[in-house]
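Q: Given only this backbone (119 positions), what sequence would you predict?
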């Protein structure tokens, strides 16, 4: 099982980035997918999530209207489009895959990708 994030980097305030998370080793379409972030000295927080079928999404209030989560089940990839980036969006961003069933729960995490918003 592997989740590999990419697309992070340095961007100026107001700019955009698109993160990708490529998955392998499990039935991607059965898993709900999420993006989390962790800034230095802070707890890891949920940024955005999408159901396995893709019909339901939710976002942290701090990113609503700016970030969009999407998935491509044919490519086993989840994306996070980040627009109008702010200094406070600086963090390591992680993707997570989760499946919950009767009597079982599996979750997998990527290694993270650094996003730095700075002028």
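A: Predicted residues:
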């Amino acid at each position: 099982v592997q989740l590999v994030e990419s697309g992070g980097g340095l961007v100026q305030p107001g700019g955009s980035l698109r993160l990708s998370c490529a998955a392998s080793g499990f039935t991607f379409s059965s898993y709900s997918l999420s993006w989390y972030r962790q800034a230095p000295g802070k707890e890891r927080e949920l940024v955005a999530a999408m159901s396995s079928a893709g019909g339901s999404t939710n976002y942290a209030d701090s990113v609503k209207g700016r970030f969009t989560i999407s998935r491509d089940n044919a490519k086993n990839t989840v994306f996070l489009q980040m627009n109008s980036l702010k200094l406070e969006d600086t963090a390591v961003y992680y993707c997570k895959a989760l499946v919950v069933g009767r009597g079982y729960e599996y979750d997998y995490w990527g290694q993270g990708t650094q996003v730095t918003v700075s002028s």
